[in-house]
């Protein structure tokens, strides 16, 4: 089974070679344009967030067929939770009051049937798009790639892998056999897209920079695919984290990284004596710094983050959750008496 090199793809990105192809080679040897590629776009910050609308706009401008399906309200931190509507109408208003309370629990923009909300989590939004919307409204078209984000805030290391709704949507898509990428931006600004409409043509606006970088890696992936059967190796996805955008970092470089490794973050708690409540605490546990699988020479996502480098970390994850053969056999020896 053939797979293209993700490292080679990132090398192409870093080389300055144009990532905007006019022709893409398909498996049958024919040629197609990006308009033949369908992308399912979701997030966990809500369908009305500035980041997802900017990304939708840029992907459409690049020639892709994009279906946006995202939660009606903020669903950060829901991981892979699979929530479904409990009512045909919203019992609470959506994020930014859009849509209003009492609106249908799923629906689309009046002027764009490709932009949908769903009263669920990011993971269930993927299924809503694949299992309901596309068969019912879009002639059961094939999806070539699932994109989640860009999230409002970074999602780095194994500690965030199970907590992030952005990544939850991504590994849910990979579990369906779809190539998928989670994008997260360091800027945590939670903004309504309608408040930023006047910034659509501002090349320095952070959401536009993030969106262009999404298009850049997407175009490069499709270019690199050539006649390989999969856009990404089967059962794998990408976790991409974008840096803070400012006058010193307007065009960040790409860096291939690991999820685990030095300074990898996990979630912990600390007790606040004053409030009598608990606070979130970033902790560094030894197991997440160990390298068992993958390229142990790569830097961790966390290293890029804590050094505040003007780089975009790109990590490859797998949904094959089984332990290595050696780990399996070691555990088997401990349990031998159970199977005699």
Automatic annotation (TrEMBL):
GO MF terms listed in the record are: metal ion binding; nucleotidase activity
Q: Where is the Survival protein SurE-like phosphatase/nucleotidase domain?
A: 39-261
Q: Which UniProt keywords apply?
A: Hydrolase, Metal-binding, Signal
Signal sequence, start to end: 1-19
Short name of any one Pfam family annotated for the protein: SurE
- The organism's place on the tree of life at top rank: Eukaryota
Against InterPro entries, the record matches this protein to: SurE (IPR030048), SurE-like_Pase/nucleotidase (IPR002828), SurE-like_sf (IPR036523)
The family this protein is said to belong to: Belongs to the SurE nucleotidase family.
The record, for PANTHER family, names: 5'-NUCLEOTIDASE SURE (PTHR30457), PHOSPHATASE, PUTATIVE (AFU_ORTHOLOGUE AFUA_4G01070)-RELATED (PTHR30457:SF0)
Q: What is this protein called?
A: CIC11C00000003552
């Amino acid at each position: 089974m053939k797979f293209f090199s993700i490292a080679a793809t990132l090398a192409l990105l870093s080389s300055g070679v144009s990532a905007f192809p006019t022709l893409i080679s398909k498996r049958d040897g024919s040629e197609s344009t990006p308009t033949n590629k369908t992308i399912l776009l979701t997030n966990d910050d809500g369908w009305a967030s500035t980041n997802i609308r900017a990304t939708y706009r840029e992907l459409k401008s690049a020639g892709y067929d994009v279906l946006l399906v995202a939660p009606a309200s903020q669903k950060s931190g829901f991981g892979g939770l699979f929530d479904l509507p409990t009512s045909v109408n919203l019992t609470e208003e959506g994020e930014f009051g859009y849509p209003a309370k009492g609106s249908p629990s799923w629906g689309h923009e009046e002027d764009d049937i490709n932009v949908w909300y769903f009263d669920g989590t990011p993971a269930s939004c993927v299924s809503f798009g694949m299992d309901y919307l596309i068969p019912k409204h879009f002639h059961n078209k094939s999806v070539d790639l699932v994109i989640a984000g860009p999230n409002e805030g970074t999602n780095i290391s194994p500690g965030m892998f199970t907590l992030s709704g952005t990544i939850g949507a991504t590994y849910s898509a990979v579990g369906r056999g779809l190539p998928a990428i989670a994008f997260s931006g360091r800027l945590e600004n939670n903004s309504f897209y309608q408040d930023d409409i006047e910034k659509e043509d501002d090349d320095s606006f952070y959401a536009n920079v993030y969106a262009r970088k999404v298009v850049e890696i997407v175009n490069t992936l499709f270019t690199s695919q050539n006649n390989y059967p999969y856009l990404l190796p089967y059962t794998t996805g990408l976790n991409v984290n974008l840096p803070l955008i400012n006058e010193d970092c307007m065009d960040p470089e790409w860096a291939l990284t690991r999820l685990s490794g030095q300074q990898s973050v996990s979630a912990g708690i600390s007790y606040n004596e004053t409030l009598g409540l608990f606070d979130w605490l970033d902790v560094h546990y030894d197991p997440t710094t160990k390298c068992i699988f993958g390229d142990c020479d790569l830097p961790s996502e966390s290293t890029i983050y804590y050094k505040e480098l003007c780089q975009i970390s790109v990590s490859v994850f797998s949904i094959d959750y089984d332990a290595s053969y050696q780990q399996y056999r070691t555990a088997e020896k401990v349990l031998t008496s159970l199977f005699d």
